[in-house]
Protein: Cytochrome
Amino acid sequence: MSINEQVVQSLEVPGIGTTWLVSGFEEGRALLSDPRLSRDERKGPEALRELAWKNRAGMSMGRHLLDEDPPNHTRLRGQIKKAFTPRRVENLRPRAQEITDALLDTVSGEVDLIDALAFPLPMTIMCELLGLPEEDRADFRVWGAELAMGMDPTADRDKVAHGGKALRAYFETLLAELKADDRSVEDQPDLTRALVRAGELDHEELISMLMLLLLAGHTTTVNLISNGVLALLTNPDQLALLRARPELLPQAIEELLRHDGPLQVSLPRITVDEVEVAGATIPAGDMVHVVVAAANRDASRFLDPERLDITRTDNQHLGFGHGVHFCVGAALARMEAQVAIGTLVARFPDLRLAVPVDELQWEVNPILRSLVSLPVLT
Structure:
């Protein structure tokens, strides 16, 4: 097989046209920062534009920063990036530790680790950042799961629509309440109220931003924590090493992101000009996906890539993407994973899977790597 066949492959998607899959690390990294590739589907063929519009309407979600190129992307990202700087995130670490300790205090015997820890920690942090009440979080989980199904073309579109309509209605009501009481905007300086007070986003942009923050702000971290714990439980030598050397925790999280991170395939890009990749010519107007899971296990970039090695230091993976769309919440996800996984493995020395690994179920999602549940014995 030639290097071109290994790194770049094309396939025909009915109703859309040619789609290209790029699996090499260096090639994928370069494409993710190449201005000739756009996240704006309006620059693609008519079939893709119509499909994107239909999907967005079905999710009751307008255009948001993940759909935009600079300069509009830069404007939208600028409204929230200060809330996710490493310094501000580090100030949240004591609160994340407090939440984690409280959650694990209730853990005994067999539990679903997603229900017990991986979901409630990032959801609680994100809701507190946005100023959303605790009693609404169970609804957010249901609506978020339904919306995440939208990435699967075979999903029940009625369920996707239900989640989108419900979440949108929630934020419409919240913003109406804030508008009716100006004091609440000033007296509670959470991110939602900060965005309202700034007044830089129009109503549709604000609704889409809040929906995106709530969804993206917890979903991928849930998967990072649960996938990471599973990887450690199925690599007991690395779990033992982490317990013996807890100072390895930050680079262990990076290795878990590389080895089996939540992002498996990048969101699609549209070529706005012809692009050469590993000897293949991708014409303008085609769709491109970087296969992040494959790129992060590229043997030409990573030594012994199939092996989980928490001592790996040369580890510039693509788990959070690359370029202008590099995950704005990366620092928050890293911190939450460090607190959750570090505390869990320290407090439960006998932690183990409650079922054989081949009995675990995974969500059907072409973009995200998500366990349905993670039953463990503590």
Summary: The mean pLDDT is 91. DSSP finds 17 helices and ten strands in the chain. Strands lie at 8-13, 17-22, 37-38, 110-112, 269-271, 275-277, 280-282, 287-290, 352-353, 375-377. The radius of gyration is 21 Å.
